[in-house]
Structure formats: structure tokens, C-alpha cells
Amino acid sequence: MAFCSLLRRFALPRWSAQRPLSHCLHWQQRRALPAQRCETPVLRRICAIVAIASMLGGFGAYASAQAGAIEVRSAQLEADRNGWALDAHFYFTLNEHLAEAVNKGIPLYFTTGFTLTRARWYWFDERAVSVERSVRLAYQPLTRQYRISSGGLHFGLPTLTEALAVIQRLSGWHVIDRRAVHPGARYTASVRMILDTALMPKPFQINAINDRDWKLVSDWKSFDFKPSAFN
After folding, report:
1. Distances in Å between the alpha carbon of 104 and those of 141, 160, 209?
2. pTM of the model
3. Residue 17 to residues 14, 22, 23, 211, Cα–Cα distance (Å)
4. Pair 87, 76: CB distance under 8 Å
């Protein structure tokens, strides 16, 4: 209501020597009262407009934050020959600036991080596993394909939608060796994905630092994990 008080100071008439003394005293009493509300219809209307604008601004900021988020829809660990592998499903969309950058030949890097920790009452949590995996997405104008590279794997897809669908699905990524955990112990597994601007060419790294359009990240999704003994 401080805004209403400020408007009141300028909107309400000032008393002068030509006004009756009773009016002056009445005006002084009104000014002495604390500003609890907008008294006049004009001030009430202005206050309502300001309140609505504030709410819309808050909703806009929330929508903007959501637009730059990666959603971790599912994550689970499955036993493999040497330990456990991660299967995860992410979802995100590229804003027009990122899509334009890809189509102009600028590569994008998506890094998935995985950690496995065990709580200890007497000391800091034990970090049993901490690994990352990056996928490179780049458009090849000669072949008109979106090329995906990860480790020694390379292949192309005809559309950006198909390429993103592959990046959003993670299957069979070996993350835990059986020797890194204690059978029967309780662990917390956490996974997330980010648009890794640190892997981009240096000129684009500088631009991405202060450009919100280049911010694409998920929260850490955590779940319990209790390894069983291998036969």
C-alpha cells in the first residue's frame, strides 16, 4: 500500500490560507491517519491495475523458468554383467534461438550426470559413484542430417525432432561397478541433464554465460537404491 500512499500525497488537494480552519484541521487529521487503503475510486482503480500487473509479472517469470527446464520423467537402475546400468527418460524442447543455432551449424552438448551416495552419521556422505556422459548434436548441411555423437558412436537423423527424441532416451548406460558398492547397503542415486555450454566453442561460451536462452537444465532426480549380492 506504499504506492497508494504516494499517490495520495499528490492526488489529494493541499489546503491553503483561503480554506476554512475547520477544513484545514480535518485535512490534517486525514493525513495523520495511517495509509491502510486507497480511499478514492481513482486510487482504487490504479492500485488494482498495479496488483494485476504484479501478478502477471510473476506468472511470466514462472512460465519463463519452466520453458528453460529439462524434465526427468523416469530413472531406474538395472543389473548388467558388471554392476548396474541406468535407464532414464528426459523431456525438453529447444527454444527458437537454440534451434536456430543448431540449424546454423553450432553444435550443442547435452551432459547427463549420475551420482551415488551413502549417508554416514559420523561424517560427510560417501560418494561411491560420480560419472558424466555427453552427447553432441550438430547439423550437417551437406547431408541435411542432424548428427549425434557420443563416445565412439556416430549416426545421423533427418529431423531435429527425431534427434532430440534419441537424446532424451538413455538406455543401458553402465554407471555402477559391483566393487563400488556394498550389498545390502542403502544408497541414494541422483541423475540430471544439462545443456553443457562449457563444451561449446569459446566465443559461444562467453555469450551463453549471460544469455538466458542458453540455460537448459534439469533438477536432480533422486531415488533409493539397495544393491543385491551378485552370485
Report:
1. 9, 13, 20
2. 0.69
3. 10, 12, 11, 59
4. yes
Query: Using one digit for the tens of pLDDT, what is the confidence trace for 132-153?
Result: 999 999 999 999 999 999 988 9
C-alpha radius of gyration, the chain, whole number: 29
Helix ranges (DSSP H) in the chain: 2-11, 21-32, 41-67, 96-103, 160-167, 202-209
Using one digit for the tens of pLDDT, what is the confidence trace for 13-60? 444 444 444 444 444 444 444 444 455 655 555 555 444 444 444 433
Pairing between strand 69-79 and 217-218? parallel
Cβ-contact 11, 40 below 8 angstroms? yes
Task: Evaluate whether 53 touches 59 at the Cβ level (below 8 Å).
Answer: no
**Angle at 174 (CA atoms; ends 171, 175), nearest 5 degrees:** 115
Q: How far is CA 96 from CA 2, 106, 162, in A?
A: 40, 14, 17
